[in-house]
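In practice, a research group might receive sequence data for several interacting partners and want a quick structural hypothesis before committing to experiments. The following worked case mirrors that situation: the sequences arrive first, and a predicted assembly follows.
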Amino acid sequence: MDKLEQLKTTRADLDDLSAEFSSNEESEEGSKDIKTDVLTINFGPQHPSAHGVFRGVFEVDGEIIVGIEPHIGYLHRCFEKIAEHRTYTQFIPFTDRMDYLSSMLNNWGYVISVEKLADVAVPERAEYLRVIVGELNRIASHLVFLSTAAIEAGALTPYFYYFDERERILWLFEQLCGARFTYNYMRVGGVRVDTPDGWLDDVLAFTERLEKTMVDYDKLLLGNYIFKKRMKGVAPFSAEQALDWGLTGPSLRASGVNYDVRKADPYSVYPRIDFDAVVLYNGDNLDRVIARSQEIIQSINIIKQAVAQIPDGRVYSPGMPRYVTPPPGEAYAHIESSRGDLGFYIISDGSPKPYRVKIQGPSFGNLQVLPAIATGSFFSDAVLIFGTLDAVFGEVDR
Amino acid sequence: MSDEINVNDNNIEDLPAKGMIVQEKGLGYTLTVDRKDLFKTATGLKEAGFDLFLFVSGVDYPNHIKLVYRIYSTKRANRMAFVVKTEVPKRDPVVDSLVPLWSAANWHEREAYDLFGVEFKGHPDLRRIFMPEDWVGHPLRKDYSDGHMLVSDSDTQAKPKLSVVDSQTDDGDEDAGDEGKSEE
Amino acid sequence: MDLTKGQLIQQPASKAGILQEQAPGAGLILGKAGDLLNWSRKNSIWWMAFGLACCAIESLMCLNTARYDMDRHGGLLRNTPRLSDLMLVAGTLTHKMADITQHLYEQMPEPRYVMAIGGCAINGGPFYYDSYTVVRGVDKIIPVDVYVPGCPPRPEAVMYGIEQLKEKIIARGMIE
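A structural hypothesis for the assembly, expressed as tokens:
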């Protein structure tokens, strides 16, 4: 715990440092009498900073963005239609491919909804394993966020370090379920397999390591004057605006709204684990980055407690039929994904296939903020703002 | 734990149409309204502190399309979420847009328009969002088909398959034993 | 310098694809222009990352990191089609994206190569059935040189695919 405290003080120093920077100092006098035209610039759908396939039509007046028209749907893969043609279990691998940076959490969100619908109990060991893999996956996802945020600000070095750490998580997942990326690990009523021997020790060793290295990485990225100068005060979003536009997840919490599903509507074994929802108050780009960085620390904290508390026993509910057939009815369950409030609304008509599956992807809600949040910023900050909203297009387009 | 609040609690006293609020299994507090009253109800909810619009989903039934809204409150003491349901007939799928209340409804309503063909009156920019502008039909309707789509289970094959599956679930022990192997 | 007196050592095309001669005082390399071009081309594949979906993170971003390090194969990531030789199509192609993909392919200078990464780019993968927007394979639109299966393939698999492409480049005489 000392290390965690130490880490927190390091962060406080960082915050103090970042507070040194005064707000925007650009002088706008003198440029007022220059006549400018509004220029339309197309961005994407193939662009290295588009995080996939996003197209935005930017209207810029000089350096200032005056309007954005986002176009999405380039990766619309019809998950909701496919779900109606698959059995409940067959749809689990598809959820992997939705938000592909946090596949475990998507698995989890789906099975938790089916469990609510079919009234299935989950063994305690499976719940703890879900928490451990879910938080590991959250760390992996945030590492990708931090590295892409660094790349978009022009810093390439953090990318190599963050991805190295991410490879270690993928190695753990590979040992657990055989896949690096699309895991298909959760089942309705538990998880697919128990851990291999010594896996939990490996997880602990990894968290110990990450705790130390994150201090260095934070100095590298968040301690960098240029990075902070680029990020500080850019595209601030107040709590009222964020709620009005339906932001969820770390981006909402960076604006000062304490809405974390793990706290607000606790599921699984989170009530037994002591952790804080990361809430910051400026709502600018820098806060959105710091929120992710601090969530990694919270996730390490959660994993350590979960590994300490995990009981022995079954990982799969006994007597589960191979084809889950929930009674007719409706259920909605949601979890805190690494991007926000991920919900599945499932309607059953009593057959082995769902009648309707509605996926409430947090990226979809988060991305529609872009025109509101980026208008008025510099055009050179557009990809930074877009990056800090952390949209994954598998989930935006579904 | 937000689902555990008592319905008779003072918390819902100030909500509109509080007599019609039911607690549905699996969904929590649910309010089913006529489509004419949707905007009025939503305004009441917004005034009562429900500030986070989470989604609107269409559900296609043979004669009507059901719209399911989920709205959350970060301000109220017990942090509750509400599900509002309404129905629109397929012949005239028009309903009031909630964009004036929550800007977040913008893309969600465009999605429902794109995939279900529900028209939202008063929406500032009602266009298709996922599909190309010139696409014909609304794909998430049950009767949708096009020349491109391959259906894995056409109706003729699906029915006998389902009955076999149902009978299998009765002798669940065998299946459970099968799955149990993976634990060891 | 009388070249006819020099000793010509012809190496098999697959190894170096060049003719080599030791001239007194200086090194001199002779060869067919096509072989030389192919040899240099295969060792400096500039690839355009065309990330569409999940495979882009797993195959392309990891491929650049220190653990897999595509640079040591002579591969260099370019972000514009006009500077690249190889298009890595990583992910699911939809109807809405199909025109753009073709447009990008046509912007690439000849000779150009395409690698289809992952099940979706090969034939639609998991989205083959019941999907109303997915194009079942990128080869319906543009010619594909190498297919790398997997959902998604490991970065090692993509590297193996690039080695396969190198053999293909060497085997194809561009200037006869």
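Before designing any experiment, note the following. The radius of gyration of chain C is 19 Å. The helical segments of chain C are 33-43, 54-64, 95-107, 119-123, 155-171.
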